[in-house]
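In this notebook, the sequence line spells out the residues, with the fold written below as integer tokens. This is how one looks.
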Amino acid sequence: MKGTVPLVKAQETALFGSKAVGLGQAIRDGLPVPPGFTISTQVTGASDALAYGTAVVLIALVLTVNLVSIVFRVRLRSRRKW
């Protein structure tokens, strides 16, 4: 089961997380829980290449932000303003 489902149907912790599964169990047990929905942690139809590409982009973004902060810090220190 992938995608968006009502809390009452969330039964797999690996797909929906423990909080959603717990709320779903509470609804099934008859406890007063407001209605809601949960989103699966798996994306339907996503390839391994997409996951790999996303990871590479995020790593590049982190490295770029770190590089910019290092350059900024070096420039400020060379001007004795920091």
Notes: Residues 46-82 form one domain.
